[in-house]
Amino acid sequence: CKYVNEKLAVKVEKLGKDSLV
C-alpha cells in the first residue's frame, strides 16, 4: 500500500506544480 501512496503523492505534487505555473 505504501508504494501506491507514494505514487499518488508524486502525482498530486506534480499536479499542484502544474497548477501553480
> What structural category do the secondary elements indicate?
mainly alpha
Can you count the beta strands?
Answer: 0
Mean pLDDT: 84
Number of helices: 1
Unreliable parts: none
Q: How many angstroms separate the termini?
A: 31 Å
- How is the biggest beta sheet arranged? none
Protein name: HSP60
Molecular structure report:
With 21 residues, this protein is mainly alpha-helical. 90% of the residues lie in helices and 0% in strands. It contains one helix and no strands. The protein has one helix spanning 2-20. 0% of the residues are buried.
Features:
21 residues, mainly alpha, 1 helix, 90% helix, rod-shaped, HSP60
Q: How are the SSEs ordered, and which strands pair?
A:
Layout: H1 2-20
